[in-house]
Amino acid sequence: MISIPSWTVLSILHKGGFEAYLVGGCVRDLVLKRIPKDFDVITTADLKQIKKKFNHAVIVGRRFPICRVHIKGSVIEVSSFNTVAKHDEDKERALSFLVPNGCDEKDLIRWRNSRNRDFTINSLFFDPFTCNIYDYNNGLSDLKSLELRTLIPAHVSFQEDCARILRGLRITARLGLSISNDTESAMHDLSASIEGLDKFRLMLEMNYMLSYGAAVSSIYLLQRFNLLNLVLPFQAAYINQQISAKNSMMLMKLFFNMDKLVSCDRPADSHLWVGLLMFHLALVNNPQDAHVVWTFASVLYHGKWKEGVEFAREHSKVEVKFIPEISGFSETKSDEDLAKEVAQLASLMQDSVWALTDTSILFESMSRYPFSPCSGLVFVPKKTAQDTAKIFDLMVEDTRSFINRRRRENPEINYYLLGKGDPCETRYVLGKIILETMKAGIGDAKETANGAKDLQPMGTEEVLANNQLSLKKGKKRDPSFLNPEAKQGMPKKQKMVDRHQNPFELYTAIKEQEVIAKEEVQDMVKKHWKLVKTYELSKHEINSVQRNISKKEKGHVLNQETTMIKEETGKNNKEKKAKKHAKVVEKLKHHMSPHAVSEKQQMVVSKLKLNQDEIFEWEKLLGKEGREEEVKEKPAKHKAGPTLLSSLFK
Questions:
Q1: How many CB atoms lie within 10 A of CB 355?
Q2: Residue 179 pairs with which residues in a beta bridge?
Q3: What is the pTM of this model?
Q4: 10 Å Cβ neighbour count for 417?
């Protein structure tokens, strides 16, 4: 299960006389018998010694430098025990009293390093030459119980590095873990701190969440911890509205079908999920005819216009139930009309990408959901957005002559090219995902007609609904937001940047491009909230009128409920009295001598409905001498009322 490049790096370091271990998430995944996303190595050699051992190695990073070793087509990140120790001398002095008993020098080196990890399950070391796992923080115990727990107190850990919140949710989503109480509480309390995270790092964490086969569960967890409305506010508002209206979520089905195709050992490039967000944004803002969407996806998948149209005409004869994305269905469109509308959809997708990169366009789009919050945070680099938009240039320019020149004609996905962001492979997979989603929409339409619930993916949508705060209802919104006038305000497409740009230059370019004046952002936020307050004010006025109109009806309903409660209480009291009466009769029979009381007298007593005072008088008259003192102690009257929960555990 350990990759060949990782084995090679470990072996070279070991033969050089250094200790070398696998560390972190790869050890966790190996214990769980899962394929690791990547392999990290840590060694007793310093960074300069590591670099000398390999032909293609470069030291990167300032605060915590590591050596990136390029070997056999892979990149292995190698860190040094010495580097971490130098940067954490103060922390080590503070933790010196926590050193476990019986540690030798090697144990002490590993233990010190483990204290710098984020979660207990990520603090494991594996020596592949002795097959030993070193666990100093109960990481194996937490793995056995499948629980996520921070290594130090959760609030302190997330304040040190708020990106750990996203990392924890990503691990939880992929491995299906539970979250410890203190970790969950800290995530809720400090979720807003994500807003201050560096955009380059935020994009990195979001790509890990969405490109490795756990996008649906990641989106659910982001929503559960109030993070989705920070990182993807438009999508969060859409999900909230769909839950409120009990509509099927096309967005979740798109990611569900993407998750079926990618995994940790077969990840996609970010262009794939950015393309899905573009596609969905275009449909929400400009609902399309189902036949147009079928044709668009089919052409992407088949790679040629003629084959795509034939497939779409054959398979798109049934209603697709996606609201608001699908506006209807028309079988009578000519090839010429289809070509125009497919090209227009591709153009709308290219325009919609700016809502992921430009704060002003994001706020403009959010006016569709006036009750939803919007921080104005955008993190998708413009370079990534431009490259993704460029994928659809051929369809915009001349749809009918479109040819998707994939390197292989068979239907199998080339995961190497998909992971590299190859435009042809990305187009092919996008078409496949959209076609699968449209098929699911046919099933939804049939189930809706039969009164059945949405089934795919039912679990996710139900969980989203169960964890959703109540939304404001009753406000009808315009189904189409981007009208021709609004579209004129869209920015023109910028020139495409070279895809093979140096990553460090790219990072600098991204930072320069994404810096927006704080005054402008704050002004946009104020305008957005002013709009929200305006909508809320009108809604309060409507609610006030509705309350005046229905006041009598509500009073009538309350009177009915009060009467029902009284009747129910009366029934309960009668049942309690009957039980008490039966007990008293049995008690009287026990105390009365069979010679002193006749059967006729017993019948008379059993028919009497005695109150509490009369019962005690009978007990005094008929009781034996041995029970006289017990009878004198008259218990207090018990007031009828609900049973206390605490009384059940006495």
A1: 26
A2: 148
A3: 0.70
A4: 19
